[in-house]
């Protein structure tokens, strides 16, 4: 049967026909639907989109999927073939084909399309002059296609594409890029290859005789080049790491990534350091149902500068089984100068103090309430410096630490805590030598009883605390004893109120609070000057420590106190969102008697009747501005003792300027400025143009300056250039290791969007050091996408 459907008077000509198995869709409707009015005979058939999700078809359902043809002219023989001409649209089983002319052989499920052919399937788009395809199996070929991967934002062209199945294909004489072009020049970056094999299921692309060109210059060539088709992990060679260091010279490493299993992987990186020789690193990561961690090793078998072998290794582990939780963190290096020569490899907040920390804890239930048992082993590797003035005070080691904590359920809404602990304190070696400080054992017990009274608008909490400790030292104490003990009680009461009222600021409904607060504490004097001090020190002066009955950290020193702390905080909260837009706090402590117990370096009793005044505040009331500051003021000298102020200005994405001022009177005065800001935006280019001069140049960096020493103590300065389809980063990092010594690192990174990153990890340096820094490819702040289709 041959039938021609002529153009109707409607705006869009339409002819739709269900072929083959699709004819089953025309079976009589169920009775429930039979009463629905039938469409008029003259009403054209139309496809109605559906937003509902349905499970993918299987088995016979796949074979029964209808074929839908839409064209200006359509001739068909049911269950045999069809010929469509003029704006042809073909749909079946998730495949969409558009062409000027299409023939379909139903028994063979073969579609042959010619003239302006476009095919779409699962985010892949191909365009070209001629296509032959077995639709359901997605097997066939496409001549001279241009292709586009919408998920990657990339594409290219080839002489021929052979579709092996729905996930595998082979491209001949192909070029690939994520850069659009205007037809007058090649894309900014281009990968050319004689053959590419794509496997979507394996997330792998393999290019033969591959050459990568950037701005027309070949920068990478390989007989076989493997690359991922998404951000998923894939075994293979990664782009090289490139850097420059003032201590190691030019650095070049090529990582090999091994995707061992979905929960395990490893990376091996052979590296050449032009000043020091051949080096290498290895990292193994694992994620088990109850355990996770990593092992990292850096090895320099023969350092030509130091004339010895150098190494560093790190092990991290965290696990849980039943009621047990255990952790391990170990970091060790081969020598004291390692932190100066290889600062990038010191993955620690304290580069001269490297821990070996094992801990385990178990929660359990007792007849009187929950409990926690724990144990820990903590040792330190202390690294010295070449500068004799850059000394370091090593903390005590715990060899080991064992404790038990109980929280009994007491009648009358009384809250109780009992903690007992046994420690052995030892001293680490510094420069291969142990000092003569006291070492030994300490057993202590902390008991606490408290009861809270009050409602939503006020509260009062009286509390009794007992701190008991017993010592057994390896050396004699200052009074000649090797055993000593003490018991010190503390009585305290804390109370406060919360006043609240509605308010209106800047035309917005607000809620303002006023929160006065008092803390009274009384601890009798006990002479502790002859006892060891393993872990006590002065606490930071802030709103948290002021409203705590503990003056010192640790156990060994308990300050005698008869004092009252008074403070008030006011907040401005947005009535609808609950966001805190303003906070102002003021607090001061009043001493009713002298404080005779001190810790170094104070040494002298505290005789002042009033403490310094603490002011604390933060606000984000002004659009795009954030302020945060804390100030400690001495009313006797009328001078600021300490202050910390931060200002952050963020008028939009990728526009950030921050400043931080830190003062400790007589010790340090620091100023830090950080920024990420566009400094150049190229002229608008034609739609479909490559980045070129149409990109945006960003200045990024952070500078730490010591006002007391009048010198820069650390700096990170760099630029980022975003051309749309590629990003270039150049970052210089300078870190002071002594008053007259510094280490400089230069990082260069080229990010080819849709392919990979080349060079050293400059991106991580920026994220770790610049407040408010945002990735240029941040999904929450991506610049407007290029409207033209991708591909060369």
* Strand percent estimate: over 45%
- Can you count the beta strands? 48
- Count, helices: 5
- Sequence stretches where pLDDT stays below 50 over 5 or more residues: 1-43, 49-63, 684-693, 779-792
What is the average of the pLDDT values? 83
Counting helices, strands and paired strands, the structural category is mainly beta
**How would you sum up the major sheet?**
26 strands, antiparallel, barrel
| Terminal Cα span | 45 Å
User: In which range does the helix fraction lie?
Assistant: under 10%
Radius of gyration: 36 Å
Principal-axes geometry comes out as: elongated
Q: Which keywords apply here?
A:
792 residues; mainly beta; 26-stranded antiparallel barrel; six-stranded antiparallel β-barrel
Overview of this protein structure:
The protein is mainly beta. Among the domains are: 1-25 and 61-144, Sandwich (lipopolysaccharide transport protein A fold); 235-347, no CATH class; 360-429, no CATH class; 438-621, no CATH class. Helices cover 3% and strands 57% of the residues. It contains 5 helices and 48 strands. It has a 26-stranded antiparallel beta barrel. A 6-stranded antiparallel beta barrel has the order 7-8-11-12-10-9. A two-stranded antiparallel sheet has the order 35-36. It is elongated. 23% of the residues are buried.
């Amino acid at each position: 049967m041959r039938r021609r459907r002529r153009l109707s008077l409607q705006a869009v000509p339409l002819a739709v026909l269900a072929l083959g198995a699709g004819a089953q869709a025309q079976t009589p409707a169920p009775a429930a639907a039979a009463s629905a009015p039938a469409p008029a005979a003259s009403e054209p058939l139309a496809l109605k989109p559906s937003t509902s999700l349905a499970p993918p078809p299987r088995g016979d359902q796949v074979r029964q999927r209808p074929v839908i043809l839409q064209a200006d002219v359509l001739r068909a023989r049911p269950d045999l073939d069809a010929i469509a001409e003029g704006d042809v649209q073909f749909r079946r089983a998730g495949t969409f084909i558009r062409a000027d002319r299409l023939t379909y052989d139903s028994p063979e499920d073969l579609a042959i399309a010619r003239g302006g052919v476009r095919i779409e399937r699962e985010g892949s788009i191909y365009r070209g002059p001629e296509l032959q395809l077995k639709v359901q199996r997605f097997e066939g070929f496409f001549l001279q296609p241009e292709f586009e991967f919408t998920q990657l934002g990339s594409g290219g062209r080839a002489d021929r594409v052979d579709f092996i199945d729905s996930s595998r294909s082979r491209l001949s004489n192909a070029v690939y890029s994520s850069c659009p072009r205007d037809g007058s020049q090649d894309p900014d970056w281009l990968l050319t290859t004689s053959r590419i094999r794509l496997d979507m299921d394996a997330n792998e692309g393999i290019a033969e005789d591959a050459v990568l060109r950037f701005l027309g210059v070949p920068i990478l060539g390989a007989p076989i080049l493997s690359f991922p088709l998404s951000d998923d992990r894939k075994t293979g060679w990664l782009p090289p790491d490139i850097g420059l260091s003032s201590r190691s010279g030019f650095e070049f490493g090529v990582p090999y990534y091994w995707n061992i299993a979905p929960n395990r992987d490893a990376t091996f990186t052979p590296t050449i350091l032009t000043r020091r020789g051949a080096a290498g690193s290895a990292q193994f990561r694992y994620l088990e149902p109850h355990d996770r961690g990593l092992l990292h090793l850096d090895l320099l078998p023969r350092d030509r500068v130091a004339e010895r072998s150098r190494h560093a290794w790190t092990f991290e582990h965290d696990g849980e089984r039943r009621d047990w939780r255990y952790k391990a963190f170990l970091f060790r290096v081969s020598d004291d100068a390692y932190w100066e020569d290889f600062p990038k490899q010191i993955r620690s907040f304290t580069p001269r103090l490297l821990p070996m920390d094992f801990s385990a804890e178990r929660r359990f239930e007792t007849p009187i309430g929950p409990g926690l048992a724990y144990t820990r082993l903590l040792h330190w590797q202390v690294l010295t410096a070449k500068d004799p003035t850059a000394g370091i005070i090593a903390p005590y080691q715990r060899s080991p630490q064992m404790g038990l904590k109980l929280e009994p359920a007491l009648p009358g809404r009384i809250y109780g805590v009992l903690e007992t602990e046994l420690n052995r304190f030892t001293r680490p070696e510094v420069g291969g030598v142990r000092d003569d400080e006291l070492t030994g054992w300490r057993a202590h017990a902390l008991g606490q009883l408290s009861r809270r009274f009050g409602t939503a608008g006020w509260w009062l909490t009286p509390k009794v605390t007992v701190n008991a400790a017993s010592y057994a030292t390896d050396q004699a104490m200052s009074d000649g004893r090797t055993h000593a003990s003490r018991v010190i009680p503390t009585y305290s009461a804390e109370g406060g109120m919360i006043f609240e009222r509605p308010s209106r600021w800047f035309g917005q409904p607000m809620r303002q609070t006023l929160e006065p607060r008092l803390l009274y504490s009384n601890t009798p004097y006990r002479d502790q000057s002859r006892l060891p001090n393993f872990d006590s020190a002065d606490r930071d002066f802030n709103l948290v420590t002021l409203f705590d009955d503990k003056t010192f950290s640790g156990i060994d020193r308990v300050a005698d106190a008869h004092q009252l702390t008074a403070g008030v905080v006011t907040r401005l909260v947005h009535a609808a969102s609950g966001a805190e837009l303003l906070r102002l706090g003021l607090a001061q402590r009043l001493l009713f008697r002298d404080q005779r117990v001190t810790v170094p370096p104070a040494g002298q009793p505290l005789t002042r009747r009033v403490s310094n005044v603490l002011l604390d505040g933060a606000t984000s009331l002004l659009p795009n501005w954030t302020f945060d500051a804390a100030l400690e003021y001495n009313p006797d000298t009328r001078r600021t003792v300490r202050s910390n102020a931060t200002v952050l200005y963020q008028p939009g994405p990728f526009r950030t300027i921050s400043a931080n001022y830190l003062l400790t009177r007589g010790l340090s005065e620091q100023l830090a400025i950080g920024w990420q800001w566009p400094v150049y935006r190229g002229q608008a280019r034609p739609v479909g143009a490559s980045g070129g001069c149409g990109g945006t140049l960003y200045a990024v960096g952070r500078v730490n300056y010591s006002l007391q020493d009048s010198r820069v103590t650390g700096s990170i300065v760099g630029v980022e250039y975003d051309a749309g389809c590629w990003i270039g980063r150049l970052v210089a990092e300078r870190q002071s290791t002594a008053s007259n010594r510094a280490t400089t690192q230069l990082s260069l990174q080229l990010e080819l969007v849709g392919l990979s990153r080349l060079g050293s990890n400059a991106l991580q340096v920026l994220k770790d050091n610049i407040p408010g820094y945002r990735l240029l490819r941040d999904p929450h702040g991506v610049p407007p996408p290029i409207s033209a289709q991708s591909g060369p």
